[in-house]
């Protein structure tokens, strides 16, 4: 018997969840898939691996990218490899591992009257070499196979040179990367080819490289956003939870001088320009919305814990029945919200709050008790 846990859309990228076992015998065989995008990175990027860092930037910034490949499987694998290269950051734009002329967005994506949207397309039809020629970044993949010799240096090609799907493999773009190329990772992978290092090991090296690069980029943002959280002492049980402070691009940029990516990465280049571009991208928008939601939920949880530490029964003895009923209804609603949104609270907070509610209701006249016990939540 094999237990498999497939990741859901609610999982955080980069986190492997532990499979929960119900029976002793279940522990014998178990598989926890860390991601549904797990592909052989090195094999996918091999035809263009001199440009892996530029491709990482294009994906990070949510730029429109077309992958032209000879088969649906190669097109799909390459698109999924691109999407996964910014992990643990979640890619928040659309991506189509295998896009065809029959897809409903065909006209929208091939029109030249508007700029291409933030999407990564994988295509195989030679017709696309002409109809998608106006897209700013095109990755041409030949037949994917592991090299028997060290790949030679390949220059970035100009878009006007892309005439047909038979054009040579390479990256066709006029994009100039913000960061200087990391020669170390290129040498490391080339050495692996020379020494016939297994493809799996090459992929592990490449995945770790992407992970460290993304983390170096995102840590300064995580640190700044954490500073927007109000202090715990500002949370009062008798007032609404305080709001997060506004994200200020300029204030964030000021933090980079002392606490920027240079603390964890030796890469030189225009990091500031890369951040400015990223802050306008769908990936930043999605990441920041997730962080906002998490921190707002944390504030709600801390507010509930502050309420639990109050003597609510003593408070109710000093207030009118109207005020008490209003408090009970608000507390019931907060309990319902906490349960529905799985707020990050201490385990006994919900029970304590329910006991407070029950104690307050029991101290009220019988007619009010009946109404409040029957009243649900909205």
UniProtKB/TrEMBL annotation:
Residues annotated as domain UDENN: 1-298
GO function term, MF aspect, one: guanyl-nucleotide exchange factor activity
UniProt GO cellular component terms: recycling endosome
Gene3D superfamilies reported for this sequence: 3.40.50.11500
Similarity section: Belongs to the DENND6 family.
The protein's name in its UniProt record: DENN domain containing 6A
Phylogenetic lineage: Eukaryota, Metazoa, Chordata, Craniata, Vertebrata
């Amino acid at each position: 018997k094999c237990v498999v846990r497939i990741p859901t859309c609610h999982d955080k990228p980069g986190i492997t969840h532990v499979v929960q076992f119900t029976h002793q015998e279940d522990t014998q065989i178990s598989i926890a898939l860390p991601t549904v995008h797990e592909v052989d990175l090195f094999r996918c990027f091999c035809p263009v691996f001199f440009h892996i860092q530029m491709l990482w930037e294009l994906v990070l910034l949510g730029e429109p990218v077309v992958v032209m490949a000879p088969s649906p499987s190669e097109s799909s694998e390459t698109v999924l490899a691109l999407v996964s290269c910014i992990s643990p950051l979640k890619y928040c734009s659309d991506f189509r591992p295998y896009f065809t002329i029959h897809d409903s967005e065909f006209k929208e994506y091939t029109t030249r009257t508007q700029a291409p949207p933030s999407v990564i397309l994988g295509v195989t039809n030679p017709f696309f070499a002409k109809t998608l020629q106006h897209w700013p970044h095109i990755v041409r993949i030949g037949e994917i196979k592991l090299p028997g010799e060290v790949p030679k240096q390949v220059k970035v090609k100009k878009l006007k040179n892309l005439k047909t799907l038979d054009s040579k493999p390479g990256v066709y773009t006029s994009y100039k990367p913000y960061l200087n190329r990391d020669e170390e990772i290129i040498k490391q992978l080339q050495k692996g080819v020379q020494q016939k290092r297994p493809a799996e090991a090459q992929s592990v090296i490449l995945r770790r490289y992407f992970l460290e690069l993304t983390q170096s980029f995102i840590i300064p943002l995580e640190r700044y956003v954490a500073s927007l959280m109000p202090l715990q002492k500002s949370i009062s049980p008798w007032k609404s939870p305080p709001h997060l402070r506004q994200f200020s691009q300029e204030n964030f940029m000021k933090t980079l001088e002392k606490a920027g990516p240079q603390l964890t990465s030796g890469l030189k280049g225009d990091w500031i320009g890369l951040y400015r571009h990223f802050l306008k991208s769908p990936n930043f928008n999605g990441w920041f919305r997730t962080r906002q939601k998490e921190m707002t939920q944390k504030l709600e949880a801390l507010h509930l814990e502050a309420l639990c530490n109050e003597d609510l029964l003593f408070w109710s003895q000093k207030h009118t029945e109207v005020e008490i009923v209003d408090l009970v209804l608000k507390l019931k609603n907060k309990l319902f919200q906490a349960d529905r949104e799985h707020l990050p609270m201490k385990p006994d907070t919900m029970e304590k709050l329910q006991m407070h509610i029950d104690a307050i209701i029991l101290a009220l006249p019988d007619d009010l008790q009946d109404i409040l016990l029957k009243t649900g939540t909205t």
